[in-house]
Design brief:
Oligomer: single chain
Low-confidence stretches: 161-165
Strand order of the largest sheet: 3-5-4
Helix content: 40-55%
CATH architecture of the largest domain: Orthogonal Bundle
Number of strands: 5
Number of domains: 2
Radius of gyration: 20 Å
Shape: elongated
Largest sheet: 3 strands, antiparallel
Strand content: 5-15%
CATH class of the largest domain: Mainly Alpha
Structural class: mainly alpha
Length: 165
């Protein structure tokens, strides 16, 4: 393996040496190659893998963390839109913005383009019709997201302060 530095120096390493010295670099290259082979195959990337990518892609903003936590705690029934907004300390208009930002994050995730259409937040949540008297609609967390959150064990899910996630 040859690595050329920004100043033009060339470093030659065996694959084993490269993995020992630069484990993040090597795993990143493997991840990129896996993504390219998925795109070349034309087959849709499994939803489970896409959900994991969404969660690991970038740092999760605090409003999205609050959204995940609220819907996680709500269980299979989910929350109607107004209650969800109140639970995360936002107005319904602000919740719409949080969901819009999350939808953009999801649709920009590598591998989403292998799906027939961009799913937005429906990759992670399912829309639920609320029962009377309130009526309306809301959201519930899909099992794939719940499983990934359990697996990753983000500290902000358990309420630990000052954790980066």
């Amino acid at each position: 393996m040859k690595i050329t530095t920004p100043k033009g120096y060339v470093i030659e390493l065996t694959p084993e040496e490269a993995e020992t010295l630069f484990p993040g670099l090597v795993s990143g290259v493997r991840r990129q190659l896996r993504g390219l082979s998925e795109q070349a195959s034309g087959e849709p990337v499994p939803e489970k893998r896409l959900v994991r990518r969404v969660l690991r892609r970038h740092r999760i903003p605090p409003a999205q963390q609050a959204l995940y936590k609220a819907l996680y705690e709500a269980g299979d029934e989910g929350l109607d839109f107004a209650t969800l907004a109140a639970t995360i300390g936002r107005s319904t208009e602000e919740l719409s913005g949080v969901l819009g930002g999350l939808g953009r994050r999801i649709n920009a995730t590598p591998g989403i383009d292998t799906l027939p259409e961009a799913p937005g937040v429906t990759l992670l949540f399912e829309q639920k019709e609320s029962a009377p008297p309130g009526g309306g609609w809301g959201w519930a967390m899909k099992p794939e997201l719940r499983a990934a959150l359990d697996e990753f064990g983000f500290s902000w899910m358990s309420g630990e302060e000052g954790a980066a996630g």
